[in-house]
Each structure stands twice: as C-alpha cells, then as structure tokens.
Amino acid sequence: MRKILSVIKREYLQIVKTKGFIIGTILGPVLMVALIVIPIVGQLISVGKQETIGVIDFSQQMFDELNKKMDHKLKDGTRRYLLEKFELSASIEDLRSQLSKKVLDKELSAYLFIPENVAEGGEAEYISLHTTDFEKIKDISGALSSVIIERRLKKEGLNPQKISEYLRPAKLTPVKVTKKGEEKDIGATFMISYLLVLILYMTLFFYGAIIMRGVIEEKNSRVVEVILSSLKPFELMVGKILGIGAVGLTQYSIWALFGFAASKYSKSMLSSFFRLPSDFRLPSIPSYIFIYLVVFFILGYFLYATFYAAVGSMVNSEKEAQQFLFPITMALVIPIMLIMFIMRSPDSTLSVVLSIIPFFAPILMLLRICILLPPFIQVGGSILLLILTILLMIWLTAKIYRVGILMYGKRPNFVEIVKWVRYK
Amino acid sequence: MNALEIENISKRFGDFYAVKKLSLKVPGGTIYGLLGPNGAGKTTTIRMVMNIIIPDEGSVRVLEEKMDERMKERIGYLPEDRGLYPKMKVGELLLFLAEVKGLRGQGAQKEIDFWLERFDLSAWKNKKVEELSRGMQQKLQFIVTVIHKPELIILDEPFGGLDPVNTKLLKDIMLEMKEKGGTIIFSTHRMEQVEMICDNICLINKAETVLEGNLSQIKKQYGKNTVVLDYDGDGSFIRNLSEIEKIDDYGKFMEIKLREGQDPQSLLSKLVGKIAISKFEVREPTLNAIFIDKVGERDEKDTLSH
Predict the structure, then answer these.
(1) Fewer CB within 10 Å: C terminus or N terminus of chain B?
(2) What is the mean pLDDT of chain B?
(3) What whole-number distance in Å separates Cα of residue B121 and Cα of residue B111?
(4) Within an 8 Å CB–CB cutoff, is residue B73 touching chain A?
(5) Which of the listed residues A136, A166, A196 is the one where a domain comes to its end?
(6) A181, part of any domain
(7) Does B82 lie at the interface with A, CB-CB under 8 angstroms?
(8) Is A44 inside any structural domain?
C-alpha cells in the first residue's frame, strides 16, 4: 500500500507541477467566466456604430415609410441606421455596380434593392460585405415587412394599428417548478447543464489521454521493468490512475471555489460597474448538482482511465493508439450528440434507458440531473451499474496491461489481446 | 545457503516454450553467470525470478524464502532494457525508486547523496534525467539497482552498451558486493566476462539447461587438451596436422583442440621454425569453446533428428 502511495505521489506531482496544468486550471475558469460575461458586458457597455445603408427603391413608394420604421436607436439615443436614397438615374445595372463599389469602399455598410412588385411578393435584396449580421438583417426585413403589410392593409381599407393589436402574440414565460417553489427560467438551466456536461466531457477525455500518455512514456523509456522489479503491474496501474485522478479532483476543487465565488460575488461586482435591471438574477445552481458532477467525474474517470491505461500498454506511440481509442471516443461523443434529445424529453423511457447505460451514464445522467432530478432509484441504479462496470473493466484491463507493458514492437491484434487476457 | 533456487520452472507463450523445466541453484556470496545465445530464455527466466511474469509451473525460492512481492525489496534488478523517467529530476527519481523498494525518509536521502557523491553525479541532483549524458544515465541506473542495499542483485546483460569506464565501474560494484557477502547473478552471451568473474554458471539453450555448475569444475571435466597459440606468420599448414581435432584460427591467435591422447609437445615441435611463436599455452578449453561445443552439438542433433 505504501508503494502505491509513492506511485500516486509521483504521478500527482509530475502533472501538478507542469505549466500546462497551472495554466489550464486558472485559464479554464477565466475562459468560462469570459465566455459568459463578455457578451453581457459587451451588450451593456457597447454603444455600437451608426451605419449608412443605401436604398434603391424601384417601387418608388417604400423609402419614406421604411426610413420611419428603421428608427432603431443606439445606446446614446442616436439612430442606428441612416438610410440614404439613391435615385434611379442611369440603368439599374449601373446603379447597382456603383453602390456595390460604395459597399466595397466601406462608404455604405450595405444597400437594399427593393423591386417594383415588392408589395405583391417580389423579392428585395440585401447586399453587404458579409451576410452573417443576423440582427441587422432581421431589423431590415422586419421594417420592410411591416411597411408592406401596412400598405396592403390600407389598400383593403383596414386600420393597420388595430390589426397589429389584434395580432399581438401571447407572452409565454418558462417557469421551472421545484420543491422549493417556482423560479423563472430564461435559458439558465440550459446554459448551466450544457456547461457542466461539457466540462465533464472535456475533463474525461483530457485525463484519459494523460493516463495513456504516461503509460506509453513508461513503455518507451523502458523504465517500466525497473518499476516492476519493485511493484506488481496492477499496483503500478492503480497508483497511476489514482494519482492522475487526484490531479483531476484538485482541478475540480479549484474550479468549484471559482464557481462558488463567482455565484456569490459576481452580481454585486457586476452591479457596481453597471446599472443592472431590477429583475436581473444570476441563475442559481442547486448544490447537489455540484456533488453529482464530482461523483460522475470520479466514476467516469475510473471507467475511461482503465480503458486508456490498457490502450497505452498495447501500443508504442500515441499515433498507434488512435485505432484502439475509437470505442472510447464514440462512448464519449454519442452522449454529447444526444444532449438536445435528452433536454427535450429528460424523462422519456429512451432517455432513462440511455442514461443508465454505463458508458453513457456519466454524461447523460448528469445532464438529466441538471434538467430535472430523476427518481433516486434511477440515479442510484446508474451509479451502481457504473461501479460494477468499472470493477469489470479494472479486472479486464489489468490483465491486458500486465502483458502489454512488457511487449514492444508489433501492435497486437484482437486475437492476441484475447490471448493476453488468458495468460496466467 | 542458496541465494536462489529455481526448480523446474516453465513458461509458455502460446505454443512456444520460452523456458522449459529449468532448474538451478545459486550459492550465496558468489557471482553466477547465466549464459546462452540470444533468445535462449535468459530474460524470461530472470523475469520469472523477479515475479514480473508468473511461471506456468515450478517454484522459485530466493534467500531461503518463497519468492513473492515482499522479497522484491531484498533484490536489486537491472533489466536488459534499461530506462528511467526522462522528465524527472535525478534526486526525485532516486527517491521514488528507493521508496518503492521500501527505503524511505532520511535513510533514503543519505543513500542517495552517498551514491551520487561516489559516482560524481552530485552536481546533477536537481537536473532532469534527460539532460544527463548516456554514460551518466548508465551510472544512475546502477545506483537505482543497489540503492536499497539488496542481498541479491540480478543483472540482465549488464555490460551491453557500456563504455569502458562504466564497464569497470560495474565490475567493481559486483566484486565489492561479493566481498560484503552479497550474491550476484548476471546474464550474458559474452564468455570472456564470465570467465573473469563468475564462480558458477548455467548454460541455457533453447529454453533448457545445457550445463550447470561450478565453472572450474566444468572446465576440468573438459581436461587440458587445448592449446592457445599467439603467433606470427602463415599458420595455415597447422590445420592439416594429425594431432589436431578442431581449430579456431583468428590470424594471430589460435585455439586448438587436440585429438584424444595427443601430446602438446609434439605439436610444438612441428611448429618451431615455421611460424614465430610468442605464446604457447596448454590449458582447459575457453568457455567460448565449451559454449560453441555444447550449443553446436545440440543444434546438430536437432538437425539430425529432423
């Protein structure tokens, strides 16, 4: 046991002392916070820029109304869009190429071409350097639509104002009911679930790869036999897995501290810099979710770490390992692809079954816990099944590892690996 | 006392016998040579002694006890494929490898400093292993083998790839250990090393023991029918002399096996005047000759029986 402790200590210090670990641990939360805070802050502080949009109004009757409708304001109260009308003097083609040049020269941020029959269903065009500013496109198409609709209504002798009142959609606010009461949910559950699941997914991949790299390094540097003259292969493998696992827990603890501090102080920090809306609330995360995150990290880690250790022992280089890693990669990627499905129906039979399958359970059960705490029997059942699978995996991979670490040269095929398992 | 007793161990990989019914005894306080051509089963035997691979059958007793994990602390092992953690600092590496041998704390630090000092590596204690030259890494590897004061050390092809300085260093460590009552087992296919330092030998070929026992007794069995000749000139006529059974000519050096009952003196008289003789020695066959004799003999039998 003391020998395993020595291995754990070595593995732990070897990783924790590296710059990569320190940077990753600190940069991780900083990045995460940045990912959430920067867009919010950006929206809060950016005034935005005034843009001039050229308009060729072939229908000859849209421009004034459109100009009136496009009265979106910047933060400082000025108009966001300035519309500039271009009279149809030369041929359409000449005018269009003239305006295209202005767009290319950045005199105009875009121009709009409105055909004669736009009210009867003709297609208007939006011409710009890039067509991914969806907000702007939405503003323009919204304004243009309402101009056209009002025009049609007036033609039929109807009052556009009345009609738009009649057509006002119902407001629907998602409210999440929990045992503690009701809570308005503006996408927070989605964000948090997604974030936690991604953290779990990335760390499982990351720490598995560290284990594998360690095993390959021991093999390649031929130090493994020196160590086996003091330890059993199984002790070496267990020490390695526990040591790297401890690194993972250290990282999670640091992140948890960050997260705790962020959720406690970020609101007061934000409000000291900006005027926040009175109903501004940071999403609250029940503490049991963090506990389950750690539980499923540990279980998922053990499940995949054993597999990665075995793969590392079978090969001579990381490149060779790719082929063997395919099943693990799939087992980790499939749940990620299922996220949307599970989010839509977290307690459907299929979701329940998928989240209990041991290789999917760490990610999918955690996801379900984030969205809607499943009955204890399902959570407990999946944990129990995971533990049993882990024990089975340890038994199997230890047998492969024991033989593999002393094998050099040709990469083994499946038949040979089965043989290894059978060796005494 | 026997430092090591192996009884009838076998190891099979699939249909291939790496070691078959092998037995040997290593008396305590001696240097023991495990000989054999490449692929004979030496490394597999040693790995089974070290409990790194488990024999299919047979038993291993070390220092009068059944070999198990606990006993590893009393054995020092230098594997054929040597290696250290390249990214670790020298001091940390030695501490780790001492710890897994059961040596801890102050005692471990003292030993580390002693050995680093002795091998002129003290200045490198806080350097990474990969920064050391190959020769220094070899020294470090010796330290790893002996740092926990083992009673038995097992060296697999220890002289392979060593420079002359480190070869001497290792030989000195081996003799020093023997003086202190320790036992050394080492495998090799280089006969001259064995002749110089071994008390006992075991010759393995194709997974089985061919010859085992005390080196001088083995040589005596072969009798003094070998002539070693250092000469200058054209010695090709010697091949056809009637006294000769077998000849191993290196150009300036010759090992000659005489026919049963032939007198070395009559051979000498036939050589005088024809070549310049700087040395003419009647002795037991070299281990090399015995080795080739034994291994070759088996191979011939194998070919005949097929």
Answers:
(1) C
(2) 88
(3) 13
(4) yes
(5) A166
(6) no
(7) yes
(8) no
Please judge whether A3 and B144 are an interchain contact, meaning their C-beta atoms are less than 8 angstroms apart.
Answer: no
Average pLDDT, chain A: 84
- What predicted TM-score, i.e. pTM, was given to this entire model? 0.77
pLDDT above 90: residue A236: yes
Contacts of B285 (CB under 8 A, 6+ apart): B219, B222, B225, B226, B255, B257, B293
CB atoms within 10 A of CB A9: 16
Interface contact flag, B82 A226, Cβ < 8 Å: yes
A232 to B79: CB separation less than 8 angstroms, yes or no: no
The C-alpha angle with vertex B151 and arms to B145 and B152, in degrees rounded to 5, equals 65
Q: What is the DSSP string of A326-356?
A: HHHHHHHHHHHHTHHHHHH-TTSHHHHHHHH
Are residues A419 and B14, on separate chains, in Cβ contact within 8 Å?
yes
Number of continuous H segments (helices) and E segments (strands) in chain A: 16, 6
Give pLDDT tens digits for A367-409. Answer: 998 888 889 999 999 999 999 999 999 999 999 998 888 887 7
Instruction: Kindly state whether residues B57 and B171 are assigned to the same domain.
Output: yes
Q: In this predicted structure, what is the pLDDT of residue B306?
A: 44
Query: What pLDDT, on the 0 to 100 scale, is given for residue A47?
Result: 67
| A270 band by pLDDT with thresholds 50, 70 and 90 | low
Torsion of CA B246, B251, B254, B257, to 10 degrees: 10
Using the Cβ of B85 and the Cβ atoms of chain A, whether some distance falls under 8 Å is answered with yes
Assigned token pair, B127: 């350097």
Is the pLDDT at A305 greater than 90, yes or no? Answer: yes
ipTM passes above 0.90:
no
